[in-house]
Amino acid sequence: MKRRNIAILGSTGSIGTQALDVVRAFPDLLEVSVLTAGVNYKTLIEQAREFRPTVVVIVDEKHYIEVKQALSDLDTAVLSGVKALEEAVTLDKIDVVLNAIVGSAGLRPTVRAIECGKDIALANKETLVVAGALIMDMVKRFGVTMLPVDSEHSAIFQCLVGEPENSLEKIYLTASGGPFRGKDRQFLAHVTKQQALKHPNWVMGAKITIDSASLMNKGLEVIEAKWLFDLNVDQIDVVVHPQSIIHSIVQFQDGSMKAQMGVPDMKVPIQYALTFPLRQHNTFERFDFMRYTSFTFEPADSDTFRNLELAYQTLRDGGDRPCVLNAANEIAVAAFLSDELSFLGMSNLIEATMCQQKKVEAPSLDDLLAIDQETRIVARDLIGKC
Ligand code: NAD
Ligand code: MG
User: Fold this and answer.
1) Does the pLDDT of residue 368 top 90, yes or no?
2) 62 assigned binding-site residue
3) CA geometry: angle at 125 spanning 122 and 129, to 5°?
């Protein structure tokens, strides 16, 4: 494999730091030219000193001076501010942009990277939730490859390798069920953020961990899958598989099913996206049949966890609805994490926000960026009422 040059957006987060573990494991194959962080400048400085990228971006301008001074002896350019993310991905030598930013803040950098002909390794599912139709259209027009990093979508992608002539009948996205699997609404009314932040199988950033507890993560993943694999809503099913070993399943026209499995370790789908189509030997943990003697499956409880159904409904309604859902959810999760909203209050806030925002059919990218911002304002105003 020819050495690949990578930009890692959100390098200080859960996916970003695991991506750097993958880069460390393959120094001959992978090279990093861009590292970016939101506010965590100390980790960014350490990473820059180790990987010596061409450019680092600290989005929060308050920390620009600290980063600039700490790296003054290196040949690394230090940029700051939101626009700098879009500038950094244009660097000529970059082959792949790994977008591991959290939230809709990841959308503009993805767009810019596609416009510059870069392949995208996408962890930032919000990019596709907000603007899936437009993004996949750009992917075709600019002839780039969109490589999923989300474990379920990587699983589907891997199952489809070698099947270019066979269309799939449907897919099953697996869900762990999160920390509150099997609980009722009475229980959920009193859960704390500490409880919600304890995921049974994965250690991840705070926002996706809360999304996993509320099943919004699976809802966002249904939307992500629709666009990545060009599916109808009724071709996407969710099945709860608490062991998180089967990462997702494709069912073909003949009823045959392919599943991709392995221990829950995000380094595996990250590596696959960065070395695709090759599989390289690594020393990450292997599956042990003696540790997992049974796999179980159950339906998702979308009466208790309303977010999953809300997400499906936005796909049926189309237009800007998934964008509105996503923005309202980002505000809801932040409010839950700052103790301004209860766990069940999150779904209430999302529904109330969606009712207030009039539907826009066929929005442009600029429309979606504006709707994202407007929705946040509407949702913030509604927090006290939910
Ligand atoms: P995280 O919170 O751990 O890290 C987010 C990164 O983005 C950090 O580097 C942070 O500095 C940066 N960032 C945050 N806000 C920003 C902003 N406004 N502008 C620019 N940069 C910003 O998040 P994570 O868990 O690594 O998740 C990242 C993305 O990957 C999310 O979209 C998530 O849904 C997806 N994902 C994560 C996992 C996982 O295991 N963590 C699995 C699948 C998908
Ligand atoms: Mg996932």
Assistant:
1) yes
2) no
3) 130
Tell me whether residue 152 is annotated as binding.
Answer: yes
Structure tokens at 97: 């942009």
Q: Is the CB of 128 under 6 A from ligand 1?
A: no
**219 CB under 6 A from ligand 1?**
no
The domain made up of 318-386 has a fold known as Rna Polymerase Sigma Factor; Chain: A (1.10.1740)
Per-residue pLDDT reduced to its tens digit, 271-317: 999 999 999 999 999 999 999 999 999 999 999 999 999 999 999 99
For 88-147, the pLDDT digits (tens) are 999 999 999 999 999 999 999 999 999 999 999 999 999 999 999 999 999 999 999 999
Domain boundaries, the chain: 4-148, 155-264+289-316, 318-386
Q: What is the ipTM of this complex?
A: 0.99
Out of 3.30.70.940, 1.20.1640.10, 3.30.930.10, 3.40.50.720, select the CATH number for domain 4-148.
Answer: 3.40.50.720
* Distance from Cα 229 to the centre of ligand 1, integer Å: 23
CA distances from 308 to 67, 212, 215, 222, 233 (A): 41, 10, 6, 9, 13
Classify residue 154 as exposed, middle or buried by CB count within 10 Å of its CB (0-12, 13-18, 19+): buried
Say how many Å lie between the CA of residue 12 and the centre of ligand 1. Answer: 8
Atom in ligand 1 nearest the alpha carbon of residue 204: 41
